[in-house]
Amino acid sequence: RNNGARFDEARRVAIFGGTHGNEMSGVTLVNLWVKNGAEIQRKRVEAKPFITNPRAVEKCTRYVDTDLNRAFTPENLSHVLSAPLPLPRTSQPIRAEQSVPPCPQTPADCQPAGKTAPGGGDLPYEVQRAQEINRIFGPKGSPEAYDVIFDLHNTTSNMGCTLILESSKDHFILQMMNYIKKAIAPASCLVLLNEHPLLKYSTSRSVAKHPVGLEVGPQPQGVLRSNIFEAMRVILKHALDFIELFNEGMEFPPCTVEVFRVLERIDYPRDANGNIIAMVHPNLQDGDWEPLNAGDPMFQTFDGKTIHYQGSGTVYPTFINEAAYYEKQQAFVTTRRETLGTTSGHKRAAHNL
Amino acid sequence: RNNGARFDEARRVAIFGGTHGNEMSGVTLVNLWVKNGAEIQRKRVEAKPFITNPRAVEKCTRYVDTDLNRAFTPENLSHVLSAPLPLPRTSQPIRAEQSVPPCPQTPADCQPAGKTAPGGGDLPYEVQRAQEINRIFGPKGSPEAYDVIFDLHNTTSNMGCTLILESSKDHFILQMMNYIKKAIAPASCLVLLNEHPLLKYSTSRSVAKHPVGLEVGPQPQGVLRSNIFEAMRVILKHALDFIELFNEGMEFPPCTVEVFRVLERIDYPRDANGNIIAMVHPNLQDGDWEPLNAGDPMFQTFDGKTIHYQGSGTVYPTFINEAAYYEKQQAFVTTRRETLGTTSGHKRAAHNL
Ligand SMILES: [Zn+2]
Ligand SMILES: [Zn+2]
């Protein structure tokens, strides 16, 4: 008991939808909860539903200028002048006009997508949004930041319900994930651990002390499927229940959580010009989380040849054939299964009294 | 035999991909065939593979300015000045500048999506493309038009392989569809007849004497699935084989073809502000072509209520939960099953000799 981890109360919780504007479960749930928050209310939790990329939601696209879920970098968030601007030639203050091509009478429908940021420079819309979100829910890395942010995503991959963990050291979230897995059994919910030094990216949820990603699929972009919608809704319910119990002072005993750690990004086979020359093999398609071993079929070229996986040891592929990852040169990612242990968890306040 | 329909040889055949730029089977097949046409070559057929909306393909979006597959209207195709332009105030020739807002020094990245059309006016990109396609493959309705155009589409609906017929009187295409259905058995391929007075639209393929739509699904937008790709490829193979046999003079005996005639478009339930308040019911989701009767579940509201189908008689819903049809206020279409009879078919030339 003395070894238990003590956490601050997790009172300030945000639920993000529309970080990708065409992932409809989160967009729809958050829009519903903005209108009527009864479902996400708990006595000891302030849950704020929030549409992070309203312009992308409006257009039903993933993003407008750049991927919001990669935009929360220190450079983007530090301050507005940190955006790549041409250096001023004089010591005078930078004016917005200096950073854009000359267009003295820009017609209304001809404006760049990003409005001019205060302080100068036309930042991409999503960079501006990242700054706004960081102001409201952060600042990232500060004591004022929100305690928990759930960021709701859909995927075209057959991943089922997947919770995304950004740090294997986040015992509070590991306790939460353990709670959710038990609560929804016999339905299943897997944990993807993304703390890869190169493949980890600067997510919207990373503004919070405890970021939680939720991916549910398969669902096409721009489509709302009731089964995916309800699965996401149930996970949020249990997640909020966990936080409520935690804030009430309940002690959670030590536990172990099976996670899938991101290992490697696998691109589609391409020709010398960078054009894709093969598809995900039918044996691999929809086989997210199923073991893949050396020699297993991986791709099928357009002229019918099979390309086999060459890695060593068993990996568990996921994000297989995700629509949004063609532009990121990724056909799937491999993961390795491991078990993380947590200490027991309970809130600090109860012991500090 | 004397009652048989006689047709002209169908030598000039086009295969369109990318009419919707994010429907990847057609885009990929047509791109492959542009590079190497061996697979679609037949002795007596000139098959031209063609990407109809290259800018939408480039951006991996359905369209840039407007839906190309609704753009082949008489108004759009008649001539360039028929586009909605401000009337000139003087009798001088219309100059392009008169129809756009003043922007004397438009920067390069600030140009409107449609390039200025010859003769004046900034037409939407897809209207310009429709005119170009009509010049190359039409003119629509003229003796010079291509004999057959196959237009390759994907859908997020669970429609399997669906051939789309635009006229119940097109016995040549009915013979082709009968041939394809037999050739791919026991796999199945259904025929959707869209000659509804209100719901029929001005498709890219309508430029040809004999238009053929091909929808294969389910496949998310922006995704290439090998099973869908191969299914589409096989249908094209049989279609070209049929045309080759026909051009060789083979006689096709009378046959009947089961078709599903488009009846009615069903929208999502909405509130007073037009916001969607329900999803396709899980019992209906993925149930394309399965009978729907009065009282069957149709939608599920976000607060869990079931909305039942109210129509009379059995209908066969299809295009259920197609991503692109949210903006068209369509959750699915109903169809009625019927059987069309054809006369025997053979080419006219053989008898005129
Ligand atoms: Zn996403
Ligand atoms: Zn289409």
Ordered list of secondary-structure elements with their pairings:
The structure is a homodimer of 353-residue chains.
Chain A lengths: L4 E3 L4 E6 L6 H12 L10 E6 L2 H6 L14 H5 L46 H13 L10 E7 L5 E6 L5 H14 L4 E5 L16 E8 L8 H22 L7 E12 L11 E3 L16 E5 L4 E3 L23 E11 L2 E3 H5 L1
Helix pairs in contact in A: 1-6, 5-6
The complex binds zinc ion (2 copies).
Give an account of the 3D structure:
Mean pLDDT of chain A is 88; it is low at 81-120. Chain A is an alpha/beta fold and 353 residues long. In chain A, helix 1 crosses helix 6 (226-247). In chain A, the strands form three sheets. The first copy, chain A, has an eight-stranded mixed β-sheet with strand order 3-2-4-7-5-6-8-12. Chain A has a three-stranded antiparallel β-sheet with strand order 9-10-11, with no helix packed on it. Chain A has helices at residues 24-35, 54-59, 74-78, 125-137, 171-184, 226-247, 348-352; strands at residues 5-7, 12-17, 46-51, 148-154, 160-165, 189-193, 210-217, 255-266, 278-280, 297-301, 306-308, 332-342, 345-347. The A-B interface holds A 28, 32, 60-61, 100-110, 112, 156, 218-227, 229, 276, 279-282, 285, 300, 302, 321, 323-324, 326-327 and B 28, 32, 60-61, 100-110, 112, 156, 218-227, 229, 276, 279-282, 285, 300, 302, 321, 323-324, 326-327. One zinc ion binds next to loops of chain A.
